[in-house]
Amino acid sequence: MKFMNCFGSCRAGIAAMEFALTAPLFFLLVMGIFDTGFYFMQKWALITGLDRAQRVIQTGEILKTPAWRRELSFRDLICRSRLLPNCEKRIVTQVRELDGASMESMTSDGKVNASEGHFVAGNPGKIMGVEVVYRLPPSFVGPILEQSKGPDGSVYINAMTIFRTEPY
Fold first, then answer.
1. Structure confidence at residue 71 as a pLDDT band (50, 70, 90)
2. Is 141 within 8 Å of 36 (Cβ atoms)?
3. How far is residue 130's CA from residue 51's CA, in Å, rounded to a whole number?
4. How far apart (Å, rounded) are the C-alpha atoms in residues 165 and 18?
5. Which one of 69, 77, 155, 158 has the minimum C-beta count within 10 Å?
6. What average pLDDT does this structure show over 143-150?
7. What angle do CA 126, 127, 129 make, to 5 degrees?
């Protein structure tokens, strides 16, 4: 009976018990905030890389590159950021001339296939569509982003742009 009386009034170790109960949730929240921030930094890096690379096509600079090297140099411009780890192996690009038709997204059916990539350097005054899909490395928040998951369980981010090439 003495034990029961002490159980209700004893305060030794309360702080440790509260920490043990709240610490996992706190650390989960902090890790989620950092990982979500890293996700958005990678999305920003992909969009910035796409803007830089599309400008090379828009001005016709890509045509100064040998034909066999154009797609690689376009991908290199996108992958220049250090925020996109192992970008060369994780990226799929599609560059097309749009002849009044809409550009079908590589992710419209929820699957991304590396063989779907397509590259056309364009001609003066043409409307071009560019889409880039990047497979994120495994992360802590990955399971939370269900709508972005591919069939293999990876999380994908994509960026698209449509522009008219200049009369070079």
1. very high
2. yes
3. 10
4. 62
5. 69
6. 61
7. 135
- How many C-beta neighbours within 10 Å does residue 149 have? 14
What pTM did the predictor assign? 0.79
Q: Which two tokens stand for residue 168?
A: 């070079």
Read off the pLDDT band of 7 (50, 70, 90): low
Instruction: Please count the other Cβ atoms lying within 10 Å of the Cβ belonging to residue 56.
Output: 18
Q: What is the DSSP string of the chain?
A: -HHHHHHHH--TTHHHHHHHHHHHHHHHHHHHHHHHHHHHHHHHHHHHHHHHHHHHHHTTGGGGS-GGGHHHHHHHHHTTSTTSTTHHHHEEEEEEE-SSSPPPPTTTTS---GGG-EE----TT-EEEEEEEEEPPP-SSGGG-GGGB-TTS-BEEEEEEEEE----
Task: Give the pLDDT score at 61.
Answer: 94
One-letter identity of residue 94? Q
Question: Checking DSSP bridges between strand 156-164 and strand 127-135, what pairing results, if any?
Answer: antiparallel
